[in-house]
Amino acid sequence: MALTGLEIFKLLPKTNCKKCGMPTCLAFAMQLAQKRARLDACPDVSEEAKKVLAAAAAPPIRLVKFGVGDNQVQVGQETVMFRHEEKFYNPTVIGVTVSDKLSGEALKHRIEAINALQFERVGARISVGAVAVVNESGSAEAFAAAAAAVKDSTSLAMILVSESPDAISAAVGGVAAAAPLLACATAETSEAMARIARDNNCPLVAKAESVEALAELTDKIKTAGVEDIVLSHNGSSLSEQLSGFSKIRALSLKKNFRPLGYPTVSFVTDGDTDTQAATAISLICKYSSIVVVETVEPYALLPMLTMVMNVFTDPQKPVQVEPKVYTLGEPGADSPVMFTTNFSLTYYTVESDVEASRVPSYVLVVDTEGTSVLTAYSGDKLNEKTVADAMAKAKVDELVKHRKLIIPGYVAVMSGKLEEATGWEIMVGPRESSMLPKYLHEVW
Ligand code: SF4
């Protein structure tokens, strides 16, 4: 259990030497108790105290990694219940199943479909992060063969799904180098599964139908030498699962209850594609660290990945693009020049509308600290000076022969002052960027 600041203080050297950056040992102890400092910041703490304090300083939810190389994924180490309190750190990993009943061409097509589940959204690549090989056949040999085939066909992180220790043991031998997540150990199989996980250095999923049973199970697995554990609260309804995950998050964060201080996984393989998408999205919100689905329909995966992206962005930092001139198409000296702000959503909306017009253009992105046009204007982050400065910095006058600047219709009121500040003719564009194609063809 967590130590209080005073309990931690008793274990520190009490010299107030300030090497940790804190004015006193007591101040450092308080920071440590609130998980705002790292123990290694104090160079003088004794080995004996280190042991006790390391446990207190450990994150309330363990970080668990699986997969290798660029496609290694990590889950857990969250610090808050609600993202507005700080932010969520490690995005939910979306995995897709591959049945070990598939082989040959069918298996190849399935893996190709999973590898292709990549999308671009507001300038970022979002994609499926894991392949879950499922032992549907019941045969250890078929499971091992499918796991080996998956390893050869994708670099995505792998999850081996079987409740049979024999099957997991057969499959993990050939793919241990890929550091798969092993799923699942139950109360009946925990000893054998923990041995396989420990011997192959793989993280292990603990599965039970109640939060209490999960806590008992993780204790057993940890005692058997496996530290990297993921919790599965499957076998219950969605509402029970959501309430179980919320309980797990609250007990690990608020009470620092170590047996539940692990990331979570859910398997959403029942129901049609639409049901899987809706269920997965609910679980991404509360609080599944890994969600495995059966569908490979892009229309279902895109909303899941979009939800992950939205939930895991830092609410205190608007998503921004670099302020500079963007060339869309191959603009020349007679091409239109327009400006917008560096709020990602605003920029990418403008970008796609300009691209849809097929009129090669220059889009000047003004630094408004990631705010949209109207918000920036009302906060005085978008005015004639910021636009003129951005134009000068980007040397816009060297790009085109004309001196005409298209401005967003919502800030038409800037026209006069902007004309004075830049010496350019101001053309008021449409309020909505969706009207840009029409505007560029008919007015420009
Ligand atoms: Fe105390 Fe250690 Fe910080 Fe020095 S470095 S003030 S001994 S906690």
Mean pLDDT: 94
Total number of β-strand segments?
17
Termini separation (Å)? 68 Å
Low-confidence stretches: none
Number of alpha- plus pi-helical segments: 16
Shape: globular
**Helical residue percent?**
25-40%
Structural class: alpha/beta
**Numbering strands along the chain, what is their spatial order in the largest sheet?**
3-6-7-8-9-10-11-12
Summarize the main sheet: 8 strands, parallel, barrel
Q: Kindly provide the radius of gyration, computed on alpha-carbon positions and rounded to a whole number of angstroms.
A: 27 Å
Q: What percent of residues are in strands?
A: 15-25%
Bound compounds, each kind once, are: iron/sulfur cluster
Notes on the protein architecture:
This protein is an alpha/beta fold. 40% of the residues lie in helices and 18% in strands. The chain has helices spanning 5-11, 25-33, 47-57, 104-115, 140-153, 165-175, 190-200, 211-223, 238-254, 273-285, 298-311, 344-357, 373-378, 384-393, 415-422, 436-442, and strands spanning 63-66, 73-76, 93-99, 118-121, 124-127, 130-134, 157-161, 181-185, 204-207, 229-232, 264-268, 290-293, 325-328, 337-341, 361-366, 404-407, 425-428. The strands form five sheets. An eight-stranded parallel β-barrel has the order 3-6-7-8-9-10-11-12, surrounded by seven helices. The protein has a three-stranded mixed β-sheet with strand order 13-15-14, sandwiched between helices. α5 packs parallel to α6 and α14 runs parallel beside α15. It is globular and about 75 Å long. The termini are far apart.
